């Protein structure tokens, strides 16, 4: 058996399938490194999203492989042998399984060097997400082989590729009427478009997807080995039972969370000495890059009365219904990961950290006055405000005017006004006029 398998790995479509999946997957990944450079879960989810192209390729590869005997004009010869069909196709099935799993794994391995030096948090859920992706390709290859054997036409493989893309993009979401939980069962790419550094996929969703994909693979296997019409009809039974079981496993109604957050990824990891600087566990590998910048910001804030003594990453997410309030003794900062896995543009780190004298406007619904916020930040940095690429000219002019008025005041009074900005921002109160009138 092992000798036959080695022959099939060399002479079948297995090697070509693995190579196509690897090259296509690696090109897709490296064309959009900003989508997954922040962590392993992001990488696993982006790979799953690209199944919208890889899954149809595996489907078409299976159909192309099944037509080999027809292309070689030996179908009747093999059909006349005493060996059952199931025994004849077993080595080919094994070869194609190894090919698609190896191609998907190699796609992952190709991305590892890009982030291994900056990402340290590896949740176990990543392996479940990757396993479901690999299983989906196995199911596609087996089902494609079954269809290719039933319809041994040169048009079967390209037709299946087009149908697979349509199935994932259109038919599956439409067929279930917009029910996200049910859609997530039948489409390994569904619901992965909302990316966030702390996003995850729940274990029950992965389990439900695994059940359905395993059932689809069994259906393809039985259909491939079936030699009678009754056996082919019976091959649908595993898919039906698998679909029913998967729907029972996946959370439904209010229990289904479309974009769950990993609470462990949001836990803070802090420095041990000096002014405390904290980042999320997801970004622990970037603490050394963040620490000097954050401590520089704390030094600037020390000009204010009751200044914060800790700098911590803001772990609120746009997926949260409610933002966590900021503590008076802590200044928060947004940590953005660049496409190379390192800290994004460090030139904007301090201006953003010190906006509203160190209060993140996200907690207030981004309704804090930007000219007042930025003028307070640039006064602390002792730098003239600069215009951003998308900042309106009128807003920049207001910021500079407020900054110049602060510069003309005695340092104690200017510090009191900036402190009043921080106090109002912590309470999500209006900042208007706080820099242009005497502080209380």
The residue ranges in which pLDDT falls below 50 over 5 or more consecutive positions are 72-78
Number of strands: 4
Shape: elongated
- Mean model confidence by pLDDT: 85
- Please work out how many helical segments DSSP would assign: 18
- In total, the number of domains comes to 2
User: What is the rounded distance between the termini?
Assistant: 86 Å
The spatial strand order of the largest sheet comes to 1-2-3-4
Spell out the helices and strands N to C: HHHHHHHHHHHHHEEHEEHHHH
Outline the biggest β-sheet.
4 strands, mixed
- Class by alpha and beta content: mainly alpha
Q: Name the beta content range.
A: under 5%
Rg, nearest Å = 29 Å
Helix percent reads 55-70%
Defining key terms:
440 residues, mainly alpha, 2 domains, four-stranded mixed beta sheet, elongated
Please characterize this protein's 3D structure:
This protein has 440 residues and is mainly alpha-helical. It folds into 2 domains: 254 residues, no CATH class; 159 residues, no CATH class. Helix content is 57%, strand content 4%. The protein contains 18 helices and 4 strands. Strands 1-2-3-4 form a 4-stranded mixed sheet. α2 packs parallel to α7, α3 packs across α7 and α3 runs parallel beside α8. The chain starts with a helix and ends in a 14-residue tail after the last helix.
Brief description of this entry?
This protein has 18 helices and four strands. It has 440 residues and is mostly helical. The chain folds into two domains: 2-255, no CATH class; 268-426, no CATH class.
Compile the SSE list and pairings.
Blueprint (H helix, E strand, L loop, with lengths): L1 H10 L2 H17 L9 H10 L1 H16 L1 H4 L3 H5 L5 H31 L9 H26 L5 H20 L4 H7 L16 H23 L3 H6 L1 H14 L18 E3 L5 E5 L6 H15 L8 E4 L16 E4 L15 H5 L16 H12 L11 H15 L3 H16 L14
Parallel strand pairs: 2-3, 3-4
Antiparallel strand pairs: 1-2
Helix pairs in contact: 1-7, 2-4, 2-7, 3-7, 3-8, 4-8, 4-9, 7-8, 8-11, 10-11, 11-13, 16-17
């Amino acid at each position: 058996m092992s000798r036959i398998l080695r022959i099939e790995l060399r002479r079948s479509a297995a090697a070509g399938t693995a190579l196509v999946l690897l090259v296509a997957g690696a090109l897709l990944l490296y064309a959009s490194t900003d989508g997954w450079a922040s962590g392993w879960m992001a990488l696993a989810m982006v790979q799953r999203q690209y199944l919208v192209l890889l899954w149809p390729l595996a489907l078409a590869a299976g159909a192309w492989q099944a037509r080999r005997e027809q292309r070689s004009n030996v179908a009747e010869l093999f059909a006349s042998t005493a060996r059952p069909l199931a025994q004849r196709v077993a080595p080919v099935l094994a070869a194609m399984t190894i090919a698609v799993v190896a191609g998907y794994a190699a796609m992952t391995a190709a991305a590892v060097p890009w982030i291994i030096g900056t990402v340290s948090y590896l949740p176990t859920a990543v392996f479940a997400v990757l396993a479901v992706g690999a299983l989906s390709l196995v199911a596609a290859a087996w089902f494609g082989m079954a269809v290719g054997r039933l319809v041994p036409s040169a048009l079967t493989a390209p037709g299946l590729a087009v149908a697979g893309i349509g199935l994932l993009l259109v038919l599956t979401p439409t067929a279930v009427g917009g029910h996200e939980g049910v859609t997530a069962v039948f489409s390994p790419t569904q619901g992965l478009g909302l990316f966030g550094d702390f996003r995850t996929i729940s274990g029950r969703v992965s389990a439900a997807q695994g059940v359905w994909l395993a059932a689809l693979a069994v259906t393809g296997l039985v259909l491939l080995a079936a030699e009678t019409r009754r056996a082919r009809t019976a091959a649908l039974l595993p898919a039906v039972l698998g679909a029913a079981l998967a729907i029972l496993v996946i959370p439904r109604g209010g229990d289904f969370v479309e974009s769950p957050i990993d609470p462990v990824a949001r836990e803070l990891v802090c420095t041990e000495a000096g002014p405390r600087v904290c980042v999320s566990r997801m970004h622990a590998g970037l603490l050394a890059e963040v620490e000097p910048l954050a401590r520089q910001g704390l030094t600037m804030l020390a000009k204010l009365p009751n200044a914060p003594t800790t700098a911590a990453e803001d772990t609120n997410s746009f997926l949260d219904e409610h933002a966590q309030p900021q503590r008076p003794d802590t200044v928060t900062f947004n940590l953005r990961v660049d496409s190379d896995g390192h800290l994004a543009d460090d030139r904007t780190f301090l201006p953003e950290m010190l906006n509203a004298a160190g209060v993140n406007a996200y907690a207030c619904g981004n309704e804090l006055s930007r000219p007042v916020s930025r003028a307070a930040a640039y006064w602390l940095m002792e730098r003239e405000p600069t215009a951003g690429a998308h900042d309106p000219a009128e807003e920049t002019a207001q910021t500079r005017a407020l900054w110049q008025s602060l510069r003309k005041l005695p340092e104690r009074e200017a510090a009191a006004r900036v402190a009043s900005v921080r106090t109002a921002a912590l309470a999500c109160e209006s900042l208007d006029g706080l820099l242009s009138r005497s502080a209380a």
